[in-house]
Amino acid sequence: MNRRRFSRQMLILGTGLPAGLAAGQSMINIQEPESKEFYEEPSKKLPLRHFDVVVAGGGTAGLFAAIASGRQGARTMLIESKGYCGGIAVEGGTAIHSFYNLYTAFPGCAKRKVIRGIPAEFMDRLTEMGGCTGYPEMETGRGYDSICTAIDTEQYKLLAFNMLKEANVFVAVNTLLAGAIVSDGCIQGVITESRSGREAIMAKSFIDCTGYGDLCAHAHAEFTVPNDYDSCNSFSLANASIDDYYKFLESHSAIGQICRGPRSGEENKLVRVGAEELNIPEFSEKAKKIGMSMITTTVRDNYLMYVKCNYKIPGSVVNRDDVAAAEIEIRQRMAQGSELLRQYVPGFEKAFIARTSPSLCIRRGRLISCDYDITHEDVIDGRHFDDDVFVYGFHDFAPRFQIKDGGTYGIPYRALCVRGVENLYAAGMMITSDHRAHMSTRNTVSCMAQGQAVGTAAALCAAESCGTRELSYTPLREALEKDGVYFER
Ligand SMILES: Cc1cc2nc3c(=O)[nH]c(=O)nc-3n(C[C@H](O)[C@H](O)[C@H](O)COP(=O)(O)OP(=O)(O)OC[C@H]3O[C@@H](n4cnc5c(N)ncnc54)[C@H](O)[C@@H]3O)c2cc1C
Predict the structure, then answer these.
(1) Which among 333, 361, 389 is the end of a domain?
(2) Cβ proximity of 168 and 174 under 8 Å
(3) What is the total count of domains within the chain?
(4) In the predicted structure, residue 14 carries a pLDDT above the cut 50
(5) What is the distance in A from the centroid of ligand 1 to the CA of 371?
């Protein structure tokens, strides 16, 4: 990027939502506001702040992006709309897939911890706190994942704050990313909204980890909205033991995935149980109707950390009113799901919902166009690239689609550079157009590693006052290796 562009005074305020202002075509019809009347907002002077790197969204990817950037010495601001960090990792999922290659599915395949660096450090610290199983091996379901990493959602949130603080990140929670200041293909700054009012945050490098691609949309990057997944909220069930759930499935010869690991301070306890071919009259039918998943994980006695309820939104996940309708529908489904478990699982008679996802969990929102789009073949053939920023070895479609020979593929740097914007990275569920490839790249541990990669890269760009495409690969690779990232070539 032309360095002078950073200092140009002609700033254009990007308010690219809804999608009407985006360069890309939406695959579905995103509604414009129905009103024919408009109010013209008066212009207003906003207080300014300056940083080197701004990370929008402190979820699964954004947390690690901010820590990585802060550790590189960049003045880093993290903007998160909720009151905590962690995103869908602490709101939706069951197990955190996956720090290892799928060695259990391929006889003779070497066991490799392929995601290391800051995400692995985080898990080690969480495990020490008693908030994570670590990496116990699956007993059954070994063609799907080799290990099971389950977490305690609340300890995860606490550790996230601690590690952000240690990395000197300026953390703005309860703060919405509401606009972008764009000029000549570069973001100059972003607009935030909080109870302290609207502010303009200027920086050199920007990272979109909002899951929805909000910053990319505000910056007029190309995107589509594939609408190719069910959305899904999850609930935690208290007064419900995973041992009783296991006995229930066993009595119906329906045991699928099992893993034993540390639970409430004791080793070798059940931490993951999933059903296979569960066919209990009425129960199965009702569970299917409300999209209730029969896999659960926990790290606590007498508590199921995650039970998921899936729902395919008839409209769009980026339409406020469609999402509001979905929130109501899924909340009803979760109530029905807990009632069903209470009725049918012996020992669950006094179970109750103790936690729900705070807002709709999506598997994909906007798909952001980047310089490279990872393909299905890249993933299953285990391809590596000259600009890999980490390697990954899990596929959520396994055993139907697996990475060749239980190996890994590389995530190239180009796959994280937002097309058409010179100083913006995208990380998390918003990359990878092919649904089958996305079923690998979107998983939690991949998102975390993407975060570390872009956080490191953004800090280096800020130090060099250069754009994403001007950053040399060698110093980036060296910085990632120094911070523990594992490569296979
Ligand atoms: C229900 C469900 C179950 C899943 N189960 C599993 C599983 O079992 N195992 C697995 O490995 N993967 C699972 N996944 C996939 C994986 O969890 C997600 O793909 C991944 O966590 C997405 O990470 P992300 O960083 O892209 O988004 P998120 O984690 O959602 O982070 C986005 C963050 O940005 C914030 N944000 C959004 N917009 C703004 C804004 N305008 N301003 C400020 N902040 C904003 C959000 O509050 C959020 O914290 C599941 C996904 C879902 C939806």
Answers:
(1) 361
(2) no
(3) 2
(4) no
(5) 22
